[in-house]
């Protein structure tokens, strides 16, 4: 078995011979660990040299095909082994429901009851890889202390051995997977004695024995008669491959479910033209026993028989596509798509680099790339006319994928590539077609020559379709947000004017739900030798709210410029909002500032009260008289309140998004804002603004916009 080489470093044996000598270090460690905790499958991953990628080195208990989507995984992938390495801890998943909640991509591909533990293989100074082990669905939902201790100790021992091997320059190689040995074909070899075979042959129902790979190692005469295929043609084959009417991934799925969950499973299938058969699968860690009988109780079922005239449908391929499709659904913008393809798809298909291309105005544009040591090699293609004869433009124009298994083949068809070497040796150019039109090209690059057999080309082409749909959504998402941000920037002040006696700073944060655009606004308006400040909040965070906000802000500036008093500005704006016939209301706070005389006159329309920090550091909430929200009552009045504004004082005007959050009492939030203002009030005003919106800015989910306007009297 391939393992850690024990050949002295000075040995002159050929490299190929040296790699076949040594102890099966990984296999022995994995088998011992599984035996200690009574796990029924597991795998060891090693970190790839020079790449943030985990590569499966050996698997035990189940065929490697079950874990095909995760043979190579990026360290950033949201799966247990990658998480165990990133966080240097044991990751435990206690069952099917927890797997679906925490790791939906795995649950989509393996929707069976089983428990899993993943651990890093690491010393104090270095991570070498990771291990996962699984148990049947009957395992308790919690990992016992004994199991946890055994697993941690075993991973620690393996890490020390790998560390020692690295120090002694003894390479570690992948090893053959550990599966139960396949029984010899024929009844006597399978069941142990000729008499046992005779007994089975006399039973009135069919019996088959399947190894862990799903291959038939034994079938009695009744099974052959029921299935309609001679025993000689069944032995050594998988039933869904050798029996045309069982050529359906659903039936292979039942075999996978039985092995992973170690629970009895069953299904019924229609043998043309009208015979329904029942298959019951009894699993163990060495394979499955299958009982076949007639299913007379379901004879009336009308399910269409699977078609068997095509090539076998491989569930592993479907699993890979499902897993990667799940990953792509999490991408929002174009950069997210590029990152997910680089982290999830490129490692899974064995590639080393990625370029994502799109067309705009008749030219090629690079949306993103990963894995190229010199980015200029990729960026020189940005802006290339689509008429240029390159593989990227050809794939995008024709919609036909192109595969080049060597540099010689690529340069033979596209001699221009001689002048632009990128250091790679094989390429797959996948046209990205969504809604019937090309949206771009995905280029996968390989460090070594790479043949592309027909089944791999089919998988890559299917992935191209999924990437195209994700990219189309992402481009629409980015366009929507560019529009929203542009509109928001146009409606809010680009900068605050310099005013005598007043320093000002402002911040705006959109809600994370919706279009990242809202109805919160602020402004600072110089007029007639004094200054006026306003802050307000129109209901909602959408385009309608933003448009109405722009009208209100313009009205306030106009009424201020003509010299109206604060109470009149509010009343005029209120009547305007009613005249516009909008169904939305707005809160507003308006101030007339007179720093020369140390005072400010304020009018309030249903807006949260401002905070005032005095020069001595004390903070108080200003209890202002006020009227109703703007847009409710055309005859409403808005009384004013005069507030002392001594030099060094700081006024904090804000919208309710700054202090409102789910599960937090509004008074507690306001008290916390006052405490932070008292502690940080002597900071420069921009730093103080950042401090006050710090918690809201870091929030992953803001249900409302946040506007903040700070005014300091000099």
TrEMBL record:
Keywords attached to this Swiss-Prot or TrEMBL record, sorted alphabetically, are: ATP-binding, Hydrolase, Kinase, Magnesium, Manganese, Metal-binding, Nucleotide-binding, Phosphoprotein, Protein phosphatase, Transferase
Q: Report which reactions are catalysed by this protein.
A: O-phospho-L-seryl-[protein] + H2O = L-seryl-[protein] + phosphate
PPM-type phosphatase domain residues are 499-713
Q: Which Gene3D superfamilies match?
A: 3.30.450.40, PAS domain (3.30.450.20), PPM-type phosphatase domain (3.60.40.10)
Is Ubl conjugation included in the keywords of this UniProt record?
Answer: no
Q: What is this protein called?
A: protein-serine/threonine phosphatase
- Organism this protein belongs to: Streptomyces aquilus
Q: Which domain of life is it from?
A: Bacteria
Q: Name one GO molecular function term.
A: metal ion binding
Enzyme Commission number(s) from the entry: 3.1.3.16
Cross-referenced SMART domains, in alphabetical order? Answer: GAF, PP2C_SIG
Q: Which InterPro entries match?
A: Bact_Sigma-Reg (IPR052016), GAF (IPR003018), GAF-like_dom_sf (IPR029016), PAS-like_dom_sf (IPR035965), PAS_4 (IPR013656), PPM-type-like_dom_sf (IPR036457), PPM-type_phosphatase-like_dom (IPR001932)
Could you confirm whether the keyword Kinase appears in this record?
Answer: yes
**What function does the entry list?**
Primarily acts as an independent SigF regulator that is sensitive to the osmosensory signal, mediating the cross talk of PknD with the SigF regulon. Possesses both phosphatase and kinase activities. The kinase domain functions as a classic anti-sigma factor-like kinase to phosphorylate the anti-anti-sigma factor domain at the canonical regulatory site, and the phosphatase domain antagonizes this activity.
Q: Which Pfam families does this one have?
A: GAF_2 (PF13185), PAS_4 (PF08448), SpoIIE (PF07228)
Domain GAF span(s) in chain numbering = 333-481
């Amino acid at each position: 078995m391939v393992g850690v080489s024990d050949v002295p470093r000075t040995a002159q044996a050929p490299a190929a011979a040296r790699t076949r000598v040594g102890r099966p270090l990984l296999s022995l460690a994995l088998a011992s660990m599984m035996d200690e905790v009574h796990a029924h499958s597991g795998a060891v991953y090693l970190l790839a040299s020079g790449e943030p990628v985990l590569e499966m080195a050996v698997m035990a208990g189940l065929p490697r095909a079950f874990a095909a989507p995760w043979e190579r995984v990026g360290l950033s992938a949201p799966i247990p082994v990658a998480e165990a390495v990133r966080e240097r801890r044991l990751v435990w998943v206690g069952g099917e429901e927890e797997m679906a909640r925490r790791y939906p991509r795995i649950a989509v591909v393996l929707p069976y009851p089983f428990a899993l533990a993943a651990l890093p293989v690491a010393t104090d100074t270095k991570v070498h890889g990771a291990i996962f082990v699984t148990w049947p669905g009957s395992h308790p939902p919690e990992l016992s202390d004994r199991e946890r201790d055994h697993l941690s100790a075993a991973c620690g021992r393996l890490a020390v051995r790998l560390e020692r091997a690295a120090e002694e320059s003894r390479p570690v190689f992948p090893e053959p997977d550990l599966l139960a040995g396949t029984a010899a074909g024929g009844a006597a070899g399978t069941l142990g004695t000729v008499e046992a075979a005779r007994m089975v042959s006399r039973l009135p129902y069919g019996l088959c024995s399947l190894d862990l790979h799903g291959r038939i190692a034994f079938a009695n005469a009744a099974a052959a008669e029921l299935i309609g295929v001679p025993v000689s043609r069944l032995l050594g084959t998988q039933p869904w491959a050798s029996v045309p009417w069982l050529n359906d991934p659903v039936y292979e799925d039942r075999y996978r479910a039985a092995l992973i969950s170690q629970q009895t499973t069953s299904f019924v299938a229609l043998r043309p033209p009208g015979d329904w058969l029942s298959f019951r699968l009894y699993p163990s860690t060495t394979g499955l026993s299958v009982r076949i009988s007639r299913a007379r109780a379901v004879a009336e079922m009308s399910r269409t028989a699977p078609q068997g005239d095509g090539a076998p449908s491989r569930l592993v391929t479907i699993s890979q596509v499902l897993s990667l499709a799940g990953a792509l659904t999490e991408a929002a913008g174009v950069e997210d798509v590029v990152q997910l393809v680089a982290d999830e798809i490129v490692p899974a298909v064995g590639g080393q680099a990625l370029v994502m291309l799109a067309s705009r105005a008749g030219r090629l544009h690079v949306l993103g790339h990963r894995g190229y040591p010199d980015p200029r090699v990729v960026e020189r293609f940005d802006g290339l006319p689509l008429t240029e004869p390159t593989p990227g433009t050809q794939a995008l124009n024709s919609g036909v994928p192109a595969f080049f298994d060597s540099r010689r083949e690529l340069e033979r068809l596209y001699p221009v590539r001689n002048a632009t070497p990128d250091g790679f040796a094989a390429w797959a150019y996948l046209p990205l077609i969504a809604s019937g039109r090309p949206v771009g090209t995905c280029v996968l690059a390989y460090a070594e020559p790479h043949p592309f057999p027909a089944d791999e080309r089919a998988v890559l082409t299917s992935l191209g379709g999924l990437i195209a749909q994700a990219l189309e959504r992402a481009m629409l998402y980015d366009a929507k947000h560019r529009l929203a941000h542009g509109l928001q920037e146009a409606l809010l002040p680009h900068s605050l004017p310099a005013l005598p006696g007043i320093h000002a700073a402002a911040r705006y944060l959109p809600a994370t739900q919706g279009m990242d655009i809202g109805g919160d606004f602020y402004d600072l308006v110089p007029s007639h030798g004094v200054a006026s400040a306003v802050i307000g909040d129109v209901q909602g965070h959408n385009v309608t709210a933003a448009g109405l906000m722009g009208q209100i802000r313009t009205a306030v500036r106009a009424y201020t410029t003509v010299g109206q008093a604060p109470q009149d500005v509010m009343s005029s704006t209120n009547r305007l909002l009613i005249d516009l016939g909008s169904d939305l209301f707005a809160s507003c706070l308006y101030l007339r500032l007179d720093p020369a005389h140390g005072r400010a006159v304020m009018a309030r329309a249903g807006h949260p009260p401002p905070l005032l920090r005095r020069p001595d550091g004390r903070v108080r909430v200003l209890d202002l008289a006020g009227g109703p929200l703007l847009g409710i009552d055309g005859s409403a009045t808005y009384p004013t309140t005069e507030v002392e504004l001594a030099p060094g004082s700081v006024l904090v005007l804000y919208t309710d998004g700054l202090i409102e959050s789910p599960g937090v009492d509004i008074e507690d939030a306001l008290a916390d804002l006052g405490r932070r203002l008292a502690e940080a009030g002597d900071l420069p005003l921009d730093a103080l603004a950042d401090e006050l919106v710090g918690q809201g800015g870091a929030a992953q989910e803001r249900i409302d916009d946040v506007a903040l306007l700070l005014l300091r009297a000099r």
